[in-house]
Amino acid sequence: PSDYVRFEAQLDVKDEQQYTVEIEIRKFQFRNTSSLLLFIKDISQVKELGRMKALDKYKDMLLASVTHELRTPLNCIIPMISEAIQDDHVPLSVKDTFLKPSMNSAKLLLNIVNDILDYSRFKRNKLRLNFTDFNCIEKMTEILQLFEIQCKHKDIHLHFEVSQSFPSVIHSDKDRLGQIIINLLSNALKFTTVGGITLSIYEGEEEGTATFSVKDTGIGIKSGSLKNLFTEFGKLDDDDHEGLNPQGVGLGLMISNKIVMMLGSSEPMKVKSEVSKGTEFYFTIPIIQNDSLHVLANYEPDSYIPKKQLTRKLTPLDKPCSCKRVLSIDDNDYNQMVAGRMLEKMGFEVIKAFNGKDALEIVENPTKYNCSLCQDPDCTYFNMIITDL
């Protein structure tokens, strides 16, 4: 038998509060007499801390799961509205009055959902960036178009200023940079009722950098509130502005600030504001290729998933095929329908699989799914395989 025993117990005391205690009993000799020594340690706070950490972990998992499920219908809604906008049979008045505002609202909602999803990724250190060369002017113009209808409705101006020597093509993460600008423009729009909003882009002080600025003529921010802007769920107190009813969840600026740093900025986002006159948010990021940023941005811990080896070896074609063929893998019927219609319009034949097992069956047994677009009975080639639409 051991010289000691340790166990936990629940104790109820007079104040009707319950405590968790750790009890340890040790056997020892005292003056040639076998004795027992009793230790009682209150571990209630340690247990509560453990429960809170576990709850926080489950909360983040739930948040990631819910936001992912919210994106699924939005990723179906947006392409379907886009298809209706491009349909020549739909009257122009219907497009301008209903479809285009719906499209803009859906895209802005998707941006909010992405903010919440990114928040859960930040908590787990799993946010990834994708650096590419892209036309920055075109990207910013597309974003500004999302806000044109709302600005007209509020009767405020929307300006875009670019320095003459600014390069049109830059190297960064196009979608993440767009996410930052959308968040800043959304905030400016919420708190501006007269005047206008200006998006400015110009070269930074250091070579190979660019500064992005969003300035408005809105209500401004009190100096005491500036410190809360980039915190979790940090929102402005609008008691002095009844009826303003700002929307959002208070994550946009925090996430935007973190993305600015991940894009390679040497300092966080900055803000200048004066009550009743307006606010300016601005940041500077590198716009030329930096290999060290790619290593950091593409690192995602715990992301390795063992891959099942195909029993059929995939080899290059002996002779190219002129047909276009796509294997689409997704468990959502609506996603498959939207992707199928878009691909078929581009001249592709679409083979659908609703789970990984079916997809492997198609790839490993291609003779069951011969191409219907050409006369070659041996054509089993896929130009592209799309997963998790």
Structural features:
alpha/beta, 389 residues, 8 helices, 5-stranded mixed β-sheet, 3-stranded antiparallel β-sheet, 39% helix
Describe the protein in words:
The structure is a single chain. The chain is built from eight helices and 13 strands. The protein starts with a strand and ends with a strand. The strands form four sheets. It has a five-stranded mixed sheet with strand order 5-7-8-10-9, with helices on one face. Strands 1-2-3 form a three-stranded antiparallel sheet, with helices on one face. A three-stranded parallel sheet has the order 12-11-13. Residues 294-320 have low confidence and may be disordered. Strand 7 (196-203) and strand 8 form a beta hairpin. The chain is an alpha/beta fold and 389 residues long. It is 39% helix and 23% strand.
